[in-house]
């Protein structure tokens, strides 16, 4: 008498399998195209930094003022050793990584410099400040560092350049030339560490010149939104008359 239930179960299993095979499959997910909901905003793509170099120069007046107070500048190698030779005020560091974006028409992203750094040495008192772990926050216009291997500090601020003028699309290079002014916190820490009263908030600290190599496989014009006019700032908008000149219709006689 068990033959009928077994036959019924087999028919039900076969029917279920056939219905499952006939059911439509869910469409495979795909990346949204530009302009569609969920698509990345144009110009918001991060372009990887593949290397490059940066030069930190002490402005002539700053260098002369430091020398008059017995403070010298020296290079620090990647092992943390200070060079026995004092610098003429120009220190070159490699760029090890980072990313570049177009942030409202200006350069954004981040640059991470090599483990080497800059040393400030008070020759009279033998006090030293090691400035290492340098990171440039391009979106905020700030330069961060680690003082004496232990204190993270926002060392200074700088003016962010416009993306269109700073990016060489043919060479795939970000070029920057900007001055860095010292922050109040950094000024206080540098003065305390060196035993000086030289550094003041907003005073000139360094001149930064950057040549950062960008990923050559990226279409920079598209990724950084360089093919379209960049948004004007509020100051630029106020400087441009909002009303268009009216056309006076010719009179008919």
Concise overview:
The chain is an alpha+beta fold and 253 residues long.
Keywords:
alpha+beta, 253 residues, 12 strands, 6 helices, 8-stranded antiparallel beta barrel
**What topology, given as strand order, has the largest sheet?**
1-4-5-7-8-9-11-12
Given as residue ranges, the uncertain stretches (5+ residues, pLDDT < 50) are 6-43, 235-253
Major sheet size, sense and barrel closure? 8 strands, antiparallel, barrel
What share of residues is helical?
10-25%
Q: How many β strands by DSSP?
A: 12
Give me the Rg, rounded.
Answer: 30 Å
Q: What class would the helix/strand composition place it in?
A: alpha+beta
Mean pLDDT rating? 81
